[in-house]
């Protein structure tokens, strides 16, 4: 298990020959935690990234890479990727329409990384439609997908639900607002079957 955490320390990458050298560029030190089966071998250690940024979302681990939403030092929204084998950071640009805050979640949707805004419940309540930004891993482009959830309005009327996660790669899970819990604790929409299930 790998966890990336920002520290407050900055230094020049050219000062340490064991680190990637980036001429005339100030980089930021991050902390990487590697968890092994041997607890004594698990530890935090510093790592340098030439892309100064601050994480703002939870991470998604997929195919040996950790993805997480972040803000650059110029306050631009990006998705960062960290390859746990090579320990390289990369920046994935986002569409200008996406302004990341903690309400966004990175998920695995049909094998691609995607972004969902779990606070966008007004449109879901009114029309049973929710939006997802999906990145095509071949060309690197993001596409905005509007997902119509059949029978949402007649099933839940005006109750407030928030997106929580994907189950596998083709099911969307929603949970009600605490004031609307009642007997429904979770709702799963199976995209392939176009099927809604209360749990």
From TrEMBL:
Family matches, as InterPro entries: F-box-assoc_dom_typ3, F-box-assoc_interact_dom
Domain named F-box associated beta-propeller type: residues: 24-196
Superkingdom of the source species: Eukaryota
NCBIfam families found in the cross-reference section: F_box_assoc_1
Protein's UniProt name: F-box associated beta-propeller type 3 domain-containing protein
Organism: Arabidopsis lyrata subsp. lyrata (Lyre-leaved rock-cress)
């Amino acid at each position: 298990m790998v966890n990336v955490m920002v520290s407050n320390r900055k230094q020049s990458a050219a000062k340490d020959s064991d680190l990637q050298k980036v001429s005339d560029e100030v980089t930021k030190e991050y902390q990487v935690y590697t968890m092994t089966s041997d607890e004594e071998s698990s530890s935090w250690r510093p790592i340098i990234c030439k892309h100064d940024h601050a994480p703002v979302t939870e991470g998604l681990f997929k195919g040996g890479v950790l993805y997480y939403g972040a803000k650059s030092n110029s306050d631009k929204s990006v998705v960062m990727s960290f390859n746990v084998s090579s320990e390289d950071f990369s920046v994935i640009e986002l569409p200008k329409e996406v302004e990341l805050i903690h309400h966004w979640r990175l998920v695995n949707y049909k094998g691609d990384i995607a972004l969902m805004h779990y606070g966008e419940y007004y449109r879901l309540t009114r029309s049973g439609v929710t939006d997802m930004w999906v990145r095509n891993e071949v060309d690197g482009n993001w596409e905005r997908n509007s997902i119509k959830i059949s029978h949402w309005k007649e099933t839940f009327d005006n109750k407030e639900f928030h997106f929580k996660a994907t189950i596998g790669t083709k099911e969307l899970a929603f949970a009600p607002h605490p004031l609307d819990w009642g007997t429904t604790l979770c709702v799963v929409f199976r995209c392939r079957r176009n099927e809604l299930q209360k749990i």
